[in-house]
Amino acid sequence: MGQQHLVGPDKPLAIAIDKGHLFSFILWGPPGVGKTTLGRIYANALKADYHELSAVSAGKEDIRKIVESAESLFGPKIIFLDEIHRFNKAQQDYLLPFVESGKLTLIGATTENPSFEVIAPLLSRCRVFVLEELSDTDMQAILKRTGFKIPKDAGDWLISMAGGDARQAITMLENTNRLYGSITIENLKDTLQSKTLRYDKKGEEHYNTISAFIKSMRASQPDAALYYLARMVEAGEDPKFIARRMVIFASEDIGLKDPQALVLANAVFQAVDTIGMPEAGINLAHGVAYLCKCPKNRDSYEAYQLALADVKEFGNLPIPLIIRNPVTKLMKNLDYGKGYEKYTKEDLLPEKLKDKKYLKD
């Protein structure tokens, strides 16, 4: 269902399947839109020796076993790696030579931008296909295929709640039917509320929890911040997402008061990328405790926002001649760089913004 821009007539995956074209690719898109299903369809069409792994639990040894397995010695060997963004750099480095040599054809699936999460050498050997949320029409067809008797109002509510995630919708139907024996809006809502530690990476709880995490660090409350950190980690949040927010926080909320905060936050991000979970949770906790205890200052962040507002309002104002780069004789004749001194006290802002102050003294 859906993804006609990839599987419709004369579209990339349809052509590849039709012609038996074997190549590595990454499927990037939101949860529950068919990434795993597409991987299975492709591998089945090419009659490949197909292996599914989850990057959350798999490691180098699992890859080695697949490479050395005796099955289909002369046929294609495809590895489907779900949540490939959860593989750290060392694990991706280990996978790379097998993809390069053709011993493995890789199908990666991710909800995160592969430009940030997949190492460049591996990414360069894969095509990236972007999957879209399933439309309401697609979702209606999927719900019909489940065989459950679903009243129209309950179906409409479920489609709205699922937000294009077919897996979530089907799971909700199965659980509701198991608990209550019939599908109604009330039963669906009761099923939803009965779930423990509900945490949808696209949903409200995701944004509520990361907001509580950031605001707890901003308020210098390490106990609250560590609690929300643990809650996100336990619910399966991507640790890199958490670490990235900490790097942003170090500059946005601490800034000039403790420049070392940015250094430490970057070190935490590097540790998460190199070590991986669950051990990297210790590094996250270390960083959170430090950032909470730092004095807070938003001057540099607020100064940047003020400067950005002027750029948007006034556009590209003429740069003063004194700080233009005189790279040609004509430019020198036009007084580019004339009178420039390295440590001048003269205001170097464009004429229209002379004496404007963004950063507090």
What keywords describe this structure?
alpha/beta; Rossmann fold; Helicase, Ruva Protein, domain 3; Zinc Finger, Delta Prime, domain 3; 4 domains; 5-stranded parallel beta sheet; 5 strands; 7% strand
- Please identify the structural class as seen in this structure: alpha/beta
Write the CATH fold name of the largest domain.
Answer: Rossmann fold
State the shape: globular
> In the CATH hierarchy, what is the architecture of the largest domain at level 2?
3-Layer(aba) Sandwich
What is the CATH domain class of the largest domain? Alpha Beta
Helices and strands, in order, run as HHEHEHEHEHHEHHHHHHHHHHH
* Count of beta strands: 5
What's the domain count?
Answer: 4
N-to-C span: 59 Å
Q: Sheet with the most strands? A: 5 strands, parallel
Quote the beta fraction.
5-15%
Task: Tell me, rounded to a whole number, the average pLDDT.
Answer: 88
**Compute the gyration radius: what is it?**
26 Å
What percent of residues adopt helix (DSSP H or I)?
40-55%
Q: Which ranges are low-confidence, i.e. pLDDT below 50, for 5 or more consecutive residues?
A: none
Number of helices: 18
- List the strand order in the largest sheet: 2-3-4-1-5
Q: CATH superfamily name of the largest domain?
A: P-loop containing nucleotide triphosphate hydrolases
